[in-house]
Design a protein that fits this description.
The protein has 292 residues and is α/β, with parallel strands linked by helices. The protein has one domain (7-227): Aldolase class I (TIM Barrel, Alpha-Beta Barrel), CATH 3.20.20.70. The protein has helices at residues 24-36, 56-70, 85-94, 115-127, 139-142, 148-157, 171-180, 195-200, 215-226, 230-247, 254-262, 279-285, and strands at 7-11, 41-44, 76-79, 102-106, 133-137, 161-166, 186-189, 205-208. It has an eight-stranded parallel sheet with strand order 7-6-5-4-3-2-1-8. Strand 4 (102-106), helix 4 (115-127) and strand 5 (133-137) form a beta-alpha-beta unit. The chain is globular. The relative contact order is 0.15.
Length: 292
C-alpha cells in the first residue's frame, strides 16, 4: 500500500466564532486559501486544530465539513491519535474513513510507554484499518521519543504504515530514519524551520503549520528543495524563517490565528487554555502578516 504523502501538507487550524462555536464559513475560506496556494495535501484534526479543546462530536463534524469542502481536490489526512490504544481504534471505526486518504497518529503521551509499548500501539492501529498510517513523533509534546529502530521496525512490518512526521528536531535521528527507510516509507518534517536542510538529507516533505499563513511561498520553497534547487529554495527559507519562529513563540496555533485574522480569513479566537497573541508578539508580527 502506498499513498504519495510528499511535498507540503498543511495542518489546518479550526476557526472559532466569538461564542467559541466552530466557524465553518471561515474554515471554508481557509481551505480555499491553502489549496489555491499550492499545498499538496490537507491534514484535518491535528494539534494545530486545537483538537484537545474540541468535543468528539465537533471533531467529527469538522472532518465531515473538510471532506465536503475539499471534494477530493487534495489528498486528505485525518489526525486520530491518543494514549488509549483501544479508543484510537474505536475512533477510526466510527469516522467516515472511506472519504479520507490516510491517518496521522501521534506517539502516546503522558503515560510514557516503552519502545515496545509504542510498537504494539501502532501495530494495533495499523491492523485496525486498511488506510495508510502516518506516524507522528513529537517528543516536545509527548515526552517520549520514538526511536528510529522502533519507527523502522513498524515501517518494515506493517505495509500500511507509509510515513512519519518526524518532529524531534534531531538531525542525526532524521538521517537514521532516511537511511533505513524501506522504499514505500516517506520521512516528513514536523519542523517548519528545518524543512530545507531536512529535504537536503533525503526527507520527502513536511506537514506544516506555516503553510496555513504563507502557502504560496512555503510550498514554492519545498518544491525547489525537492528538486534539489537550493539556489531557489534558500532565499525563500530565509524569508520565511523569522515569521516561522514567531508563529511558535507563544504556542501553536496562537501565532497562526493572529496572522490569519490579520489577513481577514478567520477571527482571532482560541479556546482555553490557549490565548490570543500578546501585544508584543502582535507588534513583532507586523512585517509578516502579508504574503512573504
Amino acid at each position: 500500500m502506498h499513498m504519495n504523502f510528499q511535498g507540503t501538507g498543511v495542518a489546518l487550524v479550526t476557526p472559532f466564532r466569538e461564542d467559541l462555536s466552530v466557524d465553518y464559513e471561515s474554515l471554508g475560506k481557509l481551505i480555499e486559501y491553502v489549496i489555491g496556494g499550492g499545498v499538496d495535501f490537507l491534514v484535518a484534526l491535528g494539534t494545530t486544530a486545537e483538537t484537545p479543546a474540541m468535543t468528539p462530536e465537533e471533531k467529527l463534524e469538522v472532518l465531515k465539513f473538510i471532506i465536503q469542502k475539499n471534494n477530493k481536490r487534495k489528498p486528505l489526512v485525518v489526525g486520530i491519535g491518543g494514549n488509549n490504544t483501544r479508543e484510537v481504534t474505536e475512533t477510526i471505526a466510527a469516522y467516515p474513513m472511506a472519504e479520507v486518504d490516510g491517518i496521522l497518529s501521534v506517539v502516546p503521551y503522558y503515560n510514557k510507554p516503552s519502545q515496545e509499548g509504542i510498537y504494539q500501539h501502532f501495530k494495533t492501529i495499523a491492523a485496525s484499518t486498511d488506510k495508510p498510517v502516518i506516524l507522528y513523533n513529537v517528543p516536545g509534546r509527548t515526552v517520549t521519543n520514538m526511536l528510529p529502530a522502533t519507527t523502522l521496525r513498524l515501517a518494515r512490518e506493517c505495509s500500511n504504515i507509509v510515513a512519519i512526521k518526524e518532529a524531534s528536531g534531531n538531525m542525526a535521528q532524521c538521517m537514521e530514519l532516511v537511511q533505513g527507510a524501506p522504499a514505500h516509507f516517506s520521512v516528513l518534517s514536523g519542523d517548519d524551520d528545518l524543512v530545507l536542510p531536512q529535504v537536503a538529507i533525503g526527507m520527502k516533505g513536511v506537514i506544516s503549520v506555516a503553510a496555513n499563513c504563507y502557502p504560496e511561498t512555503f510550498t514554492a520553497m519545498v518544491r525547489h528543495a525537492l528538486r534539489h534547487d537550493i539556489a531557489a529554495a534558500q532565499p525563500l527559507h530565509y524569508r520565511l524563517l523569522p515569521a516561522i519562529r514567531l508563529l511558535f513563540a507563544e504556542g501553536n496555533p496562537t501565532g497562526v490565528k493572529h496572522v490569519l485574522a490579520e489577513k481577514g480569513l478567520i477571527r482571532n479566537v482560541l479556546r482555553l487554555p490557549l490565548v490570543a497573541a500578546s501585544d508584543s508578539l502582535r507588534e513583532a508580527f507586523q512585517p509578516y502578516t502579508e504574503a512573504l
